[in-house]
Amino acid sequence: MPTIFAETILFALLPEISVGGWIVLTGIATNAACAVVGCFLVLRRMSLMGDAISHAVLPGLVLAFLFSGSMSILPLFVGAAAVGIVTTFLTQSLHQYARVPSDASMGVVFTSLFALGVVLVKKYVSGLHFDIACVYEGSLELVPFAEPVAGLPRPLFTTLVVLGINLVILVLFWKELKVSSFDPSLASTMGFSATAMHYLLMVMVAVTTVASFEAVGSILVVAMLIVPAATAHLLCDRLGIMIALSVAIGAASALLGYAAGVWFDTNLAGMMTVVAGGIYALAVFLSPRHGIVSAVMKNMQVSLRVLREDLLAMLYRVEELASDKPISPEQAQQAIGGGWQARWALRGLARMGQIQRSPERLTLTDAGRDAARALVRSHRLWETFLVEHLGMPLDHVHQPAHRVEHYIDQRLQQELESELSTTGQDPHGREIPK
């Protein structure tokens, strides 16, 4: 009856929002609150802190129940948040003063506190029912029917308050949090305590984690602390953009996860986590700078460029010898290793107008000859530098020069020329092109 009464009041106040709308809004608010602090956890390499806090709050819940004698949300929240803060303090103290590695200190503290919580449950609250499914999976589906606070379901109101607090702290301590995350020593030099910023961030993580438990459970909280931030880290290199992007990814995970959860008739919080993982997997493959596909494409482009330049240099050296023997396309492809990459490189040179191609002969165009001359000049200048300044024997300089010639631009050519005593001939007696 109280649930029906609360639902009636809620929809009387805001009738235009459906049940699904409340669920999605709660998911977005929770994911955004977690993503804001999660970016700093990822940058500090403390991704498991959310998981540690989610396990360590159990004794706080039990102690709050023992002292208050109530299962209402306020004492349980205070107890869980207090133990979450204690968890961060103990973890940092072990790492800072006992020289325990951060991951090891985190594992010791949260497993010990979680075990303490289990002991307290068995010893003092026997017969009390703790719904493990709600703790891990959350009760996101029941959010629209929760007691309203300020016209909003209580879980949504709580997460919005926490999101607002996180944003206010972020604005007030933006410089301090940013500097202490990237360079704690510089933060101390600039006059503010990196340790204080660390504890402030850990308090934010603890409060955000505990506040989100009621609605979404620990699975989604732990995921949203890390996955959107890790995804955004793959897509950009600036902290402000990273935070905004991680919030957008969290919102997208809530929307798509709700749609997928309704379609497959499964747990909504779990499906939101799955969607967030799917978005991360797409970023791993398709990130413009750090993705697997982009890395493969960049490596392929470099390989084709090197093969094209090798072909140009080879044709230039043949012209230098004034040989009347033509080089056919098949011979040129075999000279650079053959295969599909050699064929692509040859077609690329023809498409760029740097070679003229016939079934019997390859010939450099004026544009191709200029490019080949610059490449051979880089090669021979580097050979001369290796002999004059490093004393390398003549039979050891060709291979290093062959690798480096593809990365020597005109500015570096000028620097090499200024360092050499002679720029007319290379150590083998061949002319260095002008």
Task: Explain what this protein looks like in three dimensions.
The chain has 434 residues and is mainly alpha-helical. The protein folds into 3 domains: 2-286, Orthogonal Bundle (ABC transporter involved in vitamin B12 uptake, BtuC); 294-364, Arc Repressor Mutant, subunit A (Orthogonal Bundle), CATH 1.10.10; 368-419, Diphtheria Toxin Repressor, domain 2 (Orthogonal Bundle). It has 19 helices and 4 strands. The strands form 2 sheets. The protein has a two-stranded antiparallel ribbon with strand order 1-2. Strands 3-4 form a two-stranded antiparallel sheet. Residues 1-15 have low confidence and may be disordered.
Characterize this entry briefly.
Helices cover 74% and strands 2% of the residues. By secondary structure, it is mainly alpha-helical. α2 packs parallel to α8 (154-172) and α14 (292-320) crosses α16 (339-351).
Distance between the termini: 92 Å
Oligomer description: single chain
Proportion of strand residues: under 5%
Largest beta sheet: strand ordering: 1-2
What fraction, in percent, of the residue positions are helical?
over 70%
Order of helices and strands: HHHHHHHEEHHHHHHHHHEEHHH
Known CATH architecture of the largest domain: Orthogonal Bundle
User: How would you classify the helix and strand content by structural class?
Assistant: mainly alpha
In the predicted model, the low-confidence regions spanning at least 5 consecutive residues are 1-15
Q: Can you identify the CATH class of the largest domain?
A: Mainly Alpha
Rounded radius of gyration (Å):
32 Å
The general outline is elongated
Secondary structure: number of strands: 4
Q: Specify the biggest β-sheet.
A: 2 strands, antiparallel
